[in-house]
C-alpha cells in the first residue's frame, strides 16, 4: 500500500507537469524508461519536454540550467522520493532495494526544453536461476502518463509480459501512455546464443543515453514551478 500511495503521488505530480509540457523535440519524447542490468539493477529515466514559447521562458530555462544549487536540490528531492518508493517496494517483496544516486539534466533543442530525471535503482528486478523478474513497484496501481519502456539486458528476451506491450523489438518493450499496469510482470531469460557471451556494443539506447533514469517528477515539477514564477508579469 505504501508503494501504491507513493507511486500515486508521483503520477499526480506528473499530470501537473503534462499540463505545462509542450511538443517534444524529435530526438526527445516524453517517456519513462527502465533500463535493466543482468544483476537486477536498473537505470530509470523520466523525460519531460517543455515548449519555451518566448524569450522570457527561454531565458528562465537557461538560468535554471546554470543554477547548480537548484539542480543539486532537485536531485536530493528526486533521491528522497524514489527512496521512499524503493523502501515500500522492498517491504512488499522482501527483496533489498536501494536508490544509489539521482541526477537531473536540463538541455534545450531549439524551442523545446528537455528535463531528464533519473536514478540508479539497485535490486529493482529479482534475479532467478533462469533470468530476471520485474514487477514491483509497477504492479501496484502504476498508470504511466507517457510511454513506459523496459529495456532488457543484452542477450535477454522476454518470455512473459503482463500486460502485453504495444511494441516489442530487440529487447525493448513499450506500453502506451495510460496503460493500466495492474499485476505488471516481465520475465526475461538469457538467450542460449548469447549465454556467457560478450555484450553487444550497440545496446538499445532506452536510458543509456542520459546515463540515468527514473521518476524524477519532483525535480521536474520544481523546474516547471521556477519557470512559472519567472513568467509572472512584473508590477
From TrEMBL:
Domain DUF7345: 34-156
Transmembrane feature ranges: 211-229
A cellular-component GO term for this protein: S-layer
InterPro entries, per the entry: DUF7345 (IPR055769), PGF_CTERM (IPR026371)
Record keywords, A-Z: Membrane, Signal, Transmembrane, Transmembrane helix
Protein name per UniProt: DUF7345 domain-containing protein
